[in-house]
Structure formats: structure tokens, C-alpha cells
Amino acid sequence: MAGARGLRGATAGVVGLAAAAVVLVPLLVMARTVWVEGAGLDDMLASPGLGRAVRNTFMLALAVTVLSVPLGTLLALGLRRTDLPGRSFWRVAVLLPVLVPDFVLGYSWLRAYGRAGFTDDLLGAHWSAVQGPVGVTVVVVVNAVPLVYLITAVGLAARAEPAMERAARASGAGALSVLRTITLPLLRPATATAAVLVFVLTLGTFAIPQVMGSPAGFTTITTRIYANLARSSDPLAFVEAVSLALLLVVITVLVVAPADALLGPRLRVTRVASTDPASASGNRTAGRWVAATGIGCYSLLAVGLPLLALVSTAITRAVGLPPSPENWTFANFGSVLTPRTGEALGRSLLLAAAAASVLVLLGGLVAALERSRSGRGVATLVTLTLVLPGSTLALGMLIAYGRWIGGTLVIILLAYIAKLWAIAHRPISGALDRLPPDELHASRVSGASPLTAIRTVVVRPLAPALLAAWLVCFLTALHEVTMSSLLYGPGSETLAVVVLNSTELGQVGATSALSVVITVLLLLPALGFWFLIRRLTRDRMTVTAVPEPVRAG
Amino acid sequence: MPADTLQLRGLCVAYGTVAALSEVDLSVAPGEVLALLGPSGSGKSTLLHTVAGFHPPKSGEVWLSGRRVSSPTSSVPPERRDLAMVFQNYALWPHLSALDTVAYPARRRGESRARAREQAMVILKRLNVGHLSGRHPAELSGGEQQRVGLARALARQASLYLFDEPTAHLDTHVRGVFLEELVTRQRDTGAAAVYAAHDAEETLGLADRVALLAAGRVLQVGSPEQVYSEPVDLLAAQLTGPASVLTVPNGSGQVLVRPEWVALSGVRPARIRDVWFRGPHSDYLLDTDQGRLLVRESGPPAHRRDDQVTWNLRRFWPLPPGQTPPSQTSSGQVPSNLAVPE
């Protein structure tokens, strides 16, 4: 028994040290840098350009939150609570923006709706505001909607069970009345969580403002950090970047801390999700076709058409030519599929696989540790990394460890681990929570040793969660660009960095071809794994989906 | 003659390709309490949820007070059906207090908040949970939650009440109190009710009529005495209580015998195979020439294992021919139908 406790203490120590090394140390050395080298910073911080960047960032986050939360909630209600035709297809379709790298999404919108873009070629009409703050806002919204959708859908399953809505219908409430008095109030914690998360993540978003805003002179804190680092040799510009990065953290904490204090206790009492997929009422309304059409149009305009435009640009000989078969060519692909791209791709895959594997291990360890008191602090620290802006983490890594490993793959790997730790930890921790302790007890009293019990009754139910965690980390790392673009050096560019740099060079055909390549690279494993995970979970789903669930009391 | 409060005509319901209800015909007269008795998964919940309008039927129709409310092509939404429901898992809304939960139906009728709360308080007090009006579901015990659920249903002032195993999660004592409450309120309102349960004792004492349900089909409908004493087949008999099957000596068929239909005195010899003391009465399992026989007598056990006794039938019920009681009489196992149902 004492040995087990000692082992747990040692593990907690190691994990705690790792968390400190990738999160606390970088933040502290940044603070020290600003403190020590901050002379002359006052003038710089007062410059109108910086003020504008801060204001832009704040307004963007606000607008995106206000727009994406209702939209995502609406989608979740439409797809989880009605019998829309083609429901299961739309459920996958609305998640597509998650799989498309954000810089690709931004770029594809420019190709679809911008000057000399898809609609311009076909209809002679373009939307000039797509380059600039409006376009940035819209695409960040499109990018944020799946997150809101997912959080709301989980909230729907966990708190607003169909039984709640049925009870309201049987009490005389109409469909809209149920929505107003029961469903939405029950969803309030989920909605608030989604709003806070979207706001904070938008504060730190980089690729979309960089690709769609910078050419139009729209700067945010993150693009300014990037510009300071990439284009200026002024040491003060570096210090300004560090200060901005810290400012991001301060704003984030100011938003998250009160929200966590308010929402935390309520979120923690959520019930185990019921798997009853039925709608609240068996009525087949005509409205479902309207809703399906709406979701279809949204998916088409937000993701379908832009991706189509991207592919069309990639296979068209030159910009401005109509995308008709006689102008089709593979030359753009030929020009970008160079050995250099191949190397970058290899590095990206290696980095992503390494990061995902380390992260699942660390995430699993933290999930196991947080069940004891000693590990809870580590878990809190790890959860924090979710909201730390990538730009901040990258700068912190650079200052703390750049001297030794700057410009190498290792520093990028460290940054990935810091940024994605929470993403790996959450699904595993959630799956552990749903594992009834009695299952483990039953295995022990049936004669299994602790390790056998874990191997035989814990790992198998956890397999989908572990796999999902690995997959999400792998895919996110594969298209990560905020940190990679600040940390890469000669010989350590990732594919995402290559694509981002290409967007800035104005080679439209080549950039489109690269974007198509990286998107396909993400979609293929994602879909493959998705089917695998569904398969792993299906046998259990069928057991719980028995028509008349009788839970013995 | 007024229309039946509820009528099901050839109702079939399916989940995907799995049939949950097949060709169900049932009716409930105004003020009548119909109990649905059947094991888990027999389709009781599905039936109630279809009546409430949560599931569309695959074929067949649901009629409420002479009005068709469900058919495969049309459906009146639940809130416009004149019914109320008490749910198995209580289905109380976590964000509303007991008072606001019970006020909810009145609010939906368009009452002002103050008036709806006033009415809700009256109902809560009548159910002896007035002091809990400010609490949220998480702060209530199972029995209290279910009383709030009952109060909410009563606040609906409907002419049909649906009870979906309301006592399934309550312990025995609370269950008794709740049922007493329910029966009293039922009488007060004069409304009809459909009560789904898998506990025979509870159901038989409560209902005007009983419908036995198994695997989505109605086996038998009748008065509680009828379904208990004159079951249509062995399966129906097992749903309502313990029973033994004896072969008639001349080989002309089989008869069903309830434990209390046997007297432990008479002319036929038997050996006692097992004895169970059950509090108010004792059960004996007898080896007889006609098969195993379960006997119930009041008081503590008067015999022991392996005692030789005599017995006689006060009453029996001939099973229709063609019944193949699985292994009841022939094998050496203790027949499953001899166990007292849950």
C-alpha cells in the first residue's frame, strides 16, 4: 500500500515538473523579460497602432462570441432534437470546419468570395469586405460554430434529456415554450462555457486574421506579435511582442476566472449522459425540411463552396481563367510537391505523431492523478493551457529554452505539448468519470489484481477516448500554425508553416494546391479514425439503446 | 354512452426494425384505472409514450375522448392532448424549484405566475410536501421527487393520467405511501388512468382492470380477479403471481394452481421438498404424483423438509390445450414460476 502511494507521489512529481516546465517557466521568464528590458516600452505601448490592435482583438472576440453561440446552439438543437432528413450526414458536415486548418479556411474564403475568386469568375460578383475585419469575423465565426455545437450537444445529452422536454410537453407546453422554459435554461451552463471558450480562443486566434486581415491592414494582438518577431530586428519590438503576449494572458484570466468561479460548481454536477436519441415529440413537422435546407445552405456557403473554390483554383492554369475543363492542369500541384514540401510534410507528421503519443500518456496520467488530492493541482494547471494563447506559449518557450533548442523541432514539440495537454486530458478524464467505480470493484472481487483490473475492464472502455484524444491531438498538431510560425527555424518548417508563408507570397495557384494537399492529409486520417472510433463504441451503444430503458433503483 | 377516454386500435410501434408494440387494442372508460402489467421491455413505456404523443405509431390509431390523436400520418402534439404523465425517472427539471415545477402546467394554460404558484402550493400541501416548495430536485429524496412529479401531473387537470412505473425507484415503504396518495388523488379527480408496473401485487390492488403485456402484445385484459384466477395461458399466469402446473391424472390436460388454492390436508400424499418462511405466510414446495406444487398457508411453517403430508385442491384453473409448460413438471429443477415475483 505504501509502495503504491509512493509510486503515485513520484508520478505526480514528474507530471507536475513537466507541467511547470512547459507552462509556468515560460510565463515567468516572459514576465522577467518585460520587467528587466521594459525601458522605453511606455512610448511603444502608447502607439496608436498597438492600441488599434488591442481594440480590434477585443471587438473581434466579442463579435465572434455574439454570433457563433446562437448559431452553434441552433445547429445543436436542430440536429439533436429533431428528426431532420439526413441528420447523421449533417452532424458530420457541421464539424468539417474543425478538420479544415483555419488558415486554409480563411484562404479558401478569399478564393471563393474575394476579388478574382470563384464567384467573381462564375457570376462576375465578389464581396470586397471578405478581406478585412468583416471577412475575418465571419470566418472565425464559421470556425467557432462547431465548438459551440459540440459543447451544446454534450450539454443537451447531459442536462436537457429528452425526458425533461417530454415532461414539459405533457404539462401542456408547446414546442417553442419548451425551448424557452426548459431546454435553453437547462443549457445555460453549456452556453456560458461555450461563450467563454469562444471569446478566449478568439483572443488568441492568429491564422485567420493573418491570412484575411493583414493584407487589408487589419491587425490583432497575435498578428502584431508575429509581425514584430518576423519582420523587425528592433529589440524593443521583441519586448513589445512579449508584453502583448502577456497582455493576452491577463485578458484571458480576467475573463476565465470569474466565469469559472460562477460556472464551475454548476458544471461539475452534470449528470451522466443518457443515450436516448429520440426527439421530444414524435411529430413530423414540415419545419424540419426548412431546417434541413437552412443547415444545408449554411454548410454549403461556409465550407462547401470555399473548399470547392480552393480545389478549382488549385487545378486551374492561371488566376482569372474560368474553372472550365480546358483550363485544368496539375501543374500547380507539380510546382508545390517539391522535396522541400515533402520534408516539411514528414516533419509535420513526425511532430504530430510524437506530440499526440506523449500527450495521450501525459493526459492519461493527469486524469488518473486528479482522482487523488495530490494530483488535482496539476489537473488545474493543465486545464489552464487550453486557454493560454499559442502566441504567448511560443514566445515563452523561445525565451526560456530558445538558447539551447531554438529553431529545432524539439522546441515546437514542447510548445505543442504545452498547448494541447488539456485537449488530451479532457476526453480521457471524462471517460474515466463515466466509468462506474463498481466495475473496477467487481473485477477486483472476481480475483483480478489492480493491473489486471485496469487492463481488462478499464482500458477497453477507455479505448475510444484514448484513440479520440490521440487523434484530436494529432490533427490539431498537424495544422497548428500559430506557434510553429513563431518557433520554426531553417530546416524545421512544418507543412502548415510552408502553406502560411506561401499565402503571403501571393502565389495563388501554388498556395491553393498546398492547401488542398494539407486538407486532404487531415481529412483522410480523420475520417478513417472516426469510423474506427464509431465501430469501437457501437457495440456499447446498441446495448444502451434498448427501447425501454429500465434502470433498477 | 360517452366515448372512451382512451382507445388504442391495432396499435403497432417500432424502433427502427425492432417491433415494440404489435396490434394492441385497448380501451379505458372515463374514471377507470387500467393497469399495464408486464416485465421489463414488454412495451409498457412505449405504449404510454405513444399515447402521450412522443412516438408516432407505425400503424394503428390512438383515440382520446372520441378524437383521433395519433395515426401513422397525423399526430396531435403532446401539449394539446388532454392528459398528464408521471415519469419513471421523475423527469423533474433541475433548474426549477418544486413550486415552479408544479406551477408549470398552469403557466402553460396562461395563468399568471402568482396564481399558478398559489394553485401549485395547494397541490403540494395536499401531497404533504408543501414545506419542500422552495427546493430543487437535487435537494429532494426519491419519494419526495416523485410526489412533486405527481403534483405536477395533478396540476395539469387532465382527464387521463399516465403513470410510467412511478414507483420503480422507490423503496417499499415510500412506495406504499405514494400509492395511497395516488389512489386518493385519483378518486378525487375522477379522471381515468393508465398505470404501468411490473409488480403484480401493487397493480392488482390498484386497478379496475388489468392488461397483461409481454413482448409488445396484449395477452389478456380483465378485472384483477379475472386475470389472476383465470389466466389465458401460463405466461399470463406467471405475470400475476406464483402458480404451479399439474397434469390431470387421466392424462386429459393440465391445470393451473395458485399456491393459496391448495389445502395441506386431504387424501393425496406428497413429500415436502422445500419450505420458505415469508412473514405473514409460509410457502411449501411439494413433490406430488402430478408434479411439483407450491402451497401457501398462513402463519409460520408447520412442516419441515421431507415431511410426508396430504393435500387437496380447493380450486384449479384448466389450462387451454396446447400449452407446453417448459420443464415445469418433468425436470428435477425448481420451476421458475414457483418463485414469488419481485
List the helices and strands and how they pair.
The complex is a heterodimer of chains A (553) and B (342).
Chain A: H1 2-37, H2 41-45, H3 48-80, H4 87-93, H5 96-99, H6 102-113, H7 118-123, H8 133-158, H9 162-170, H10 175-203, H11 207-213, H12 221-231, H13 235-268, H14 287-314, H15 331-336, H16 339-369, H17 373-384, H18 390-405, H19 409-434, H20 437-445, H21 450-478, H22 484-487, H23 495-505, H24 508-544
Helix pairs in contact in A: 1-13, 1-16, 1-17, 1-18, 3-8, 3-10, 6-8, 6-11, 6-14, 6-24, 8-10, 8-11, 9-10, 10-13, 12-13, 13-18, 14-24, 16-17, 16-19, 16-21, 17-19, 18-19, 19-21, 20-21, 21-24, 23-24
Chain B: E1 6-15, E2 18-28, E3 33-37, H1 44-52, E4 59-64, E5 67-70, E6 84-86, H2 98-109, H3 113-126, H4 142-155, E7 160-164, H5 172-189, E8 192-197, H6 200-206, E9 209-214, E10 217-222, H7 224-229, H8 234-240, E11 244-247, E12 254-257, E13 262-277, E14 281-288, E15 291-298, E16 308-313, E17 317-318
Parallel strand pairs in B: 3-8, 3-9, 6-7, 7-8
Antiparallel strand pairs in B: 1-2, 1-4, 4-5, 9-10, 11-12, 12-17, 13-14, 13-16, 14-15
Helix pairs in contact in B: 2-3, 2-4, 3-4, 4-5
- Tell me the CATH topology of the largest domain in chain A: MetI-like fold
Instruction: Note the main sheet of chain B.
Output: 6 strands, mixed
Assembly form of the protein: heterodimer
Instruction: Please summarize the sheet with the most strands of chain A.
Output: none
CATH architecture of the largest domain in chain B: 3-Layer(aba) Sandwich
Strand content of chain B: 25-35%
Class computed from helices, strands and strand pairing of chain B:
alpha+beta
Helix content of chain A: over 70%
Q: What general form of chain A does the structure show?
A: globular
Determine the structural class of chain A based on helices, strands and strand pairing. Answer: mainly alpha
